[in-house]
UniProtKB/TrEMBL annotation:
<dbReference type="InterPro" id="IPR004808">
    <property type="entry name" value="AP_endonuc_1"/>
</dbReference>
<dbReference type="GO" id="GO:0008311">
    <property type="term" value="F:double-stranded DNA 3'-5' DNA exonuclease activity"/>
</dbReference>
<dbReference type="InterPro" id="IPR005135">
    <property type="entry name" value="Endo/exonuclease/phosphatase"/>
</dbReference>
<keyword id="KW-0479">Metal-binding</keyword>
<dbReference type="InterPro" id="IPR036691">
    <property type="entry name" value="Endo/exonu/phosph_ase_sf"/>
</dbReference>
<dbReference type="InterPro" id="IPR037493">
    <property type="entry name" value="ExoIII-like"/>
</dbReference>
<dbReference type="InterPro" id="IPR020847">
    <property type="entry name" value="AP_endonuclease_F1_BS"/>
</dbReference>
<comment type="similarity">
    <text>Belongs to the DNA repair enzymes AP/ExoA family.</text>
</comment>
<protein>
    <submittedName>
        <fullName>Exodeoxyribonuclease III</fullName>
        <ecNumber>3.1.11.2</ecNumber>
    </submittedName>
</protein>
<feature type="domain" description="Endonuclease/exonuclease/phosphatase">
    <location>
        <begin position="7"/>
        <end position="252"/>
    </location>
</feature>
<keyword id="KW-0378">Hydrolase</keyword>
<keyword id="KW-0460">Magnesium</keyword>
<dbReference type="Pfam" id="PF03372">
    <property type="entry name" value="Exo_endo_phos"/>
</dbReference>
Amino acid sequence: MPTLRVATFNINGIRSRLDILLRWLAEAAPDIVCLQELKAPDAAFPAEALRAAGYGALWHGQRSWNGVAILARGMAPLETRRGLPGDPDPAQSRYLEAAAHGVLVGCLYLPNGNPQPGPKFDYKLAWFERLIAHAQSLWDSGHPVVLAGDYNVVPTDALDIYDPRSWRKDALLQPQSRACFERLLAQGWTDALRTRFPEDKVFTFWDYFRQHWERDAGLRIDHLLLSADLAPRLRDAGVDRWVRALPGTSDHAPTWVDLRMTRAGGRRGRTRRG
């Protein structure tokens, strides 16, 4: 049965890390990729380089900050939404939605929210509320949906962070942030990585400072949520940690899910990739 790989990767600057992105695409060959923190205006997005690598792309850039993109292997993704409904600040490029390879993918970069308390944290929670409302409409539609991206939320102390003590005041661990994530999951979405590793510490982000990567002092803040139709199709999920070990790389690692698809929905048959 064909397998579809959907991945998310906070690239943390697509122009400076294009070579790393292209190397990962060549080695991992994901079918759909959600990118965050492009940190580039639309005109600077490397569409031609990605096309040469076999990927069609949609992007919503922003100079110096934010920016999201969706890549699809062997095809052009079909845009269905740019920005969340009711967003009072559309200049912040944080949400892009498209159809590709038989699924609908929402690519999101949720606000960090630091410092908190304060206006940035208030903006984070307000943005989260709009995401929850839109996610409910996607869930109710019955379409096969993956909500993938950098959620800037550490769901639990026990399994999603190396040690919460020095992060207690950070917006990523605040009860309000976690409560929003829990409300999102309560709609019925399946947290693919946690389902695959129910009792293991799994990280997707390692800060550049204090040798966090070398000490494996990580956090899990990049998530892929699956709709009711896709959850039973979960075959595997994981983190491409080797990308985080490359020189000059992002502080995030690509995170992915493999889904069993029908011949109509999947691209093609493939062997399992580790």
